[in-house]
Please model this.
Amino acid sequence: MNIYGTTKEDLEQYFVEKQDKKFRATQVFEALYKKRVNNFDEINNLGNNIKDMLKADFTLKKIKIVKKQEDKDVKKYLFELCDGNKIESVLMYHDYGISICVSSQVGCNMGCRFCESGRLKKVRNLNTYEMVEQILLIEEDIKARITHVVIMGIGEPFDNYDNVMNFIKIVNDNKGINLGTRHITVSTCGIIPGIKRFMKEKGQVNLAISLHAPSDELRSEIMPINKAYPLNELMEVIKEYIAITNRRVTFEYILLENVNDKDSDALKLASLLKGLNCYVNLIPYNETENICFKRSRHFQIMKFYDILKKSGISVTIRREFGSNVDAACGQLRANF
Ligand code: SAH
Model:
């Protein structure tokens, strides 16, 4: 087992099974996440027998940073995993804090036609520790603590549900990385069974839905997942989510020139979302070399925004980060 993939509850269970005391788990967590020790010998308040036991049963840091690219307010990290697979994460400096965009899988099977990350089919899910370590290694690199986590890197988090939820537990644990659930966001392309499970989880983790089209016909064309989970079913489950959690949902909507950015699309989108406790985050499309979609023209982006606004929908245009180092939304990749 990797210690960074172990939740505090699981570690408590471990100590109980070893006929030891539950609070040892808190001691280990404090050493790992507060003091940031890099090996069990550095945990001063544990006896040698316990350290030896931990050494026998757990491994420590496993993934490594192999490349770093920087631009204004953003750093992109390339990580190598122990099996040689590679993933990327992005660090962003905002006026309200520092966020990390974490990857959840090596590759992705969702097949969204506009997305670079999905050009490599899923090789495997990331383990919980591989997600936790993205944060620890980046914090070590910048010598500062982050304030927000978005699970919007490579992969579909709800296609790796359990590992992602354990990751969130460790991020949220006040003896762990200690971020409030409101500072954590999970983004999904619309896996309905995942949303159904997610609405029953404790806490106030934010949910974002990659919508990108206001009708089934168009959505199925650019996001094959829509054939399995069509819009009407998706909207139903989102309504249920909002009713149960009382949380506002974010809809991400990339603007692709002449594909989904017409005035009529904006009107359809407004009527689809009318009355829902939600807001729309418009994402100017980031072009990539291998995919032929184009970014909408600036005036059309503004027009789309205005139509939504006038229809009473809360809407923002996503601030752009990192396109100079291919670190922007949809540009992360796992195939090198
Ligand atoms: N699979 C999850 C998590 C990835 S989030 C999901 O689909 O939500 C990454 C976000 O960036 C998604 O909203 C995705 O649709 C969007 N995206 C993909 N390619 C993009 C591109 N080239 N430009 C802008 N956004 C893009």
